[in-house]
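ABC transporter periplasmic substrate-binding protein
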Amino acid sequence: MKTRLIKTTLAAALALCAANSYATQNVTVYTAFETDLLAKYKNAFENDNPDISIKWVRDSTGIMTAKLLAEKNNPRAEVVWGLAGSSMALLKTEGILKTYTPKGLAALDPSLNDPQADQAWFGNDAFFNAICFNDIVAEQYNLPLPTSWDDLTKPVYKGHIAMPNPASSGTGYMQVSAWLQNMGEGKAWNYMTELDKNISHYTHSGSKPCVQAGMGEVAIGISMASRGTKLKTQGAPLTLVTPEGIGWESEAVGLVKDNAAAKRVVDWSVSKQANELYIEVYPVVGHKDVHKEVKNFPNVKPVMAKMDFARMGDQRAQVLKTWSEKFDSKSEPRS
């Protein structure tokens, strides 16, 4: 009886030790990835790393960047995964991101990564803007298909255009930055003033203008090309237009807290397996060996704006201050 009791106690102790050895560790990951992608990325990572669980904290790029800056002295994130390169450059300058060399770095496209020698962020994919044009609404209002940015300032489009507020949306900020960097500041601000005359409203989400165009709430949404592609594939009556100088950014990963579990999240996020998930939505990804044509995605490479991500990060506060003073009155209320 005594021997049996000892064996039972020993078995219970071993089972408890085994359970504890496989207890999952939570890693808090701040992101601006589209909401419908989060479960897919989390499940794939946790399938390969059953001892680590991702705890997502998600918001739009502008809001997530502001949150990280506000928490600078008491960071709550351990990893930032899926945030615009310009924001990552700013976070690095502010000392929020740690210098780190992930496993598999040599397989990544360097043009999407931190260009400085002490690298702290690495591109998962490149995301692009597009003009989402609702063919049915356009026919109702006799609106011609725009083919250039200047076309959008024509009086015929008055009240028919939505675009993201750059202060709360990285999608909006990258297009404003593309105009500023490629038109020159004076011409770009004049352009945005003329465009504002035709704007119905500014959204706080980068994908929302295209969603609204797809639903017929507006005729035109300056928005995420990936969202327009998805909606078009699902049957929305959209034509995607990519004028010369279309805004784009690297969507990147970086380390906030220097611990082993957080490093494993960063390592996995730049892996070939992770990039094979990114390519399902984005036509340009960080891994050199991952390529795939994305159905209905416009040909963006010939019209990509020249983008300086470090400059975008450095000038962000002043650009957003100026933009908000000029145009914020048309922004939708924050939910």
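thats it. Confidence is low (pLDDT under 50) at residues 15-21. The longest helix spans residues 2-21. bye
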